[in-house]
Design the sequence.
């Protein structure tokens, strides 16, 4: 599970994604993170899903909204169970959105796909958002949620030995940072599924980094709890499935993180998809290539959770 997809010919944007971008341009709406405030960015994100970038909601057996008593108080979660499954696995999922945008609804399609194709109960976490709740609020919620699932497996997949984390972009950052924190505490996870994760805040969007880390962020960007690639050792990290597109600005970040994981002996299945951009995991409604890539990544995660044959083929 260490193959890297050949991306040498992948400099032309997938036509499905290009069509979505053309519709976005025609709408006159600016890019989500070109907004001056997080509130404006959230409004654009919601509008884009309603009018330009529809979610792809695969069928699942059940969806249940619950609340945990988290570090900051009320911590909503959404529990998604796959259809016709006897799985013992649980994936704790963290949505993307630059630590400032997104919620349980915005990435429900992502969580549903993981549940169905990776054959796992998915616990999607509505962690606190920046800038209203700067670091370490989001990471504290992430670590708490994973530990809560580890301590109460009978309420989810059933086995504390089959708990994984997953996330997209900034949510991938929280997922892998939580895995690192827990690994340093001796609490090992079975897998991590990361879609184009942010792993090095030293080279990421300064505005979003400022929103997430708040005051004094220059002193925090090299901390492995926010930039996992900087950790002195990643040896206690779980096996990883990582996917990124050739046209994603995070490609270099992901290359470096994969190299660091492998350096420390962590098993990695790394997929680099020609012609795909940031966010492709949620583009299955209008991009066949994105749909296929997302399915491939989930099948790789199924192999980690259920053995070489997988359960989500």
Sequence:
């Amino acid at each position: 599970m260490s193959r890297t997809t050949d991306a040498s010919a992948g400099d032309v944007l997938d036509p499905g994604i290009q069509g979505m971008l053309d519709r976005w341009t025609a709408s006159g709406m600016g890019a989500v993170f070109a907004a001056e405030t997080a509130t404006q960015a959230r409004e654009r994100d919601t509008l884009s899903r309603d009018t330009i970038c529809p979610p792809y909601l695969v069928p699942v057996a059940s969806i249940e909204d619950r609340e945990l008593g988290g570090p900051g108080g009320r911590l909503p979660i959404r529990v998604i169970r796959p259809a016709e499954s006897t799985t013992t696995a649980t994936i704790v999922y963290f949505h993307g959105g630059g630590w400032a945008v997104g919620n349980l609804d915005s990435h429900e399609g992502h969580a549903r796909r993981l549940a169905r194709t990776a054959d796992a109960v998915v616990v999607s976490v509505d962690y606190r958002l920046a800038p209203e709740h700067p670091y370490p609020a989001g990471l504290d919620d992430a670590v708490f949620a994973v530990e809560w699932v580890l301590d109460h497996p009978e309420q989810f997949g059933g086995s504390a030995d089959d708990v994984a984390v997953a996330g997209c972009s900034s949510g991938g950052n929280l997922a892998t940072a939580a895995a690192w924190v827990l690994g340093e505490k001796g609490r090992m996870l079975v897998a991590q599924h990361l879609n184009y994760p942010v792993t090095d805040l030293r080279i990421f969007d300064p505005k979003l980094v400022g929103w997430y880390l708040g005051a004094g962020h220059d002193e925090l960007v090299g901390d492995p709890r926010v930039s996992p690639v900087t950790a002195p050792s990643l040896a206690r990290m779980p096996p990883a499935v990582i996917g990124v597109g050739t046209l994603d600005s995070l490609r270099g970040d992901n290359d470096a993180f994969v190299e660091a994981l492998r350096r420390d002996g962590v098993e990695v299945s790394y997929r680099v998809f020609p012609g795909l951009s940031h966010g492709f995991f949620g583009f299955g409604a209008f991009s066949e290539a994105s749909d296929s890539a997302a399915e491939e990544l989930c099948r790789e995660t199924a192999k980690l959770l259920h053995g070489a044959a997988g359960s989500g083929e």
Remarks:
- Residues 1-10, 309-313 have pLDDT under 50 and may be disordered.
- The longest strand covers residues 62-70.
